[in-house]
Amino acid sequence: MSIDEGTAARVAKLARIKVEDAELPALAKEFNTILGFIEQLNEVDVEGVEPMTSVTPMRLKRREDVVTDGSQQDKVLSNAPDAREGFFAVPKVVE
């Protein structure tokens, strides 16, 4: 597959990238280089190769999903200018 200047201009327009006419040959060449690399990757035999998310196999750390109050109510309320009965106290704004 080969990308010409017209196709490169259309791709740039679809991507909403402003490309000057003088830059279109270089953009088309760059697209062709990328497509050539993809063709090389398609030649690799991956039969029987498991997909992976990382180059090193590892399991994500997990914790027990338990609902708690955070045990930090006193620390949080210590920053409040006015706290009453375990809550932030704010002035009334709606009658």
Automatic annotation (TrEMBL):
One of its GO terms (molecular function) is transferase activity. It is an enzyme of class 6 (ligase). Allows the formation of correctly charged Asn-tRNA(Asn) or Gln-tRNA(Gln) through the transamidation of misacylated Asp-tRNA(Asn) or Glu-tRNA(Gln) in organisms which lack either or both of asparaginyl-tRNA or glutaminyl-tRNA synthetases. The reaction takes place in the presence of glutamine and ATP through an activated phospho-Asp-tRNA(Asn) or phospho-Glu-tRNA(Gln). The keyword Transferase applies. It catalyses: L-glutamyl-tRNA(Gln) + L-glutamine + ATP + H2O = L-glutaminyl-tRNA(Gln) + L-glutamate + ADP + phosphate + H(+); L-aspartyl-tRNA(Asn) + L-glutamine + ATP + H2O = L-asparaginyl-tRNA(Asn) + L-glutamate + ADP + phosphate + 2 H(+). NCBIfam families: gatC. GO terms for biological process: glutaminyl-tRNAGln biosynthesis via transamidation; regulation of translational fidelity; translation. It comes from the Bacteria. This is Aspartyl/glutamyl-tRNA(Asn/Gln) amidotransferase subunit C. Pfam families: GatC (PF02686). SUPFAM superfamilies: Glu-tRNAGln amidotransferase C subunit. Keywords: ATP-binding, Ligase, Nucleotide-binding, Protein biosynthesis, Transferase. InterPro entries: Asp/Glu-ADT_sf_sub_c (IPR036113), GatC (IPR003837). Belongs to the GatC family. Its EC number is 6.3.5.-. The keyword Nucleotide-binding applies. Heterotrimer of A, B and C subunits.
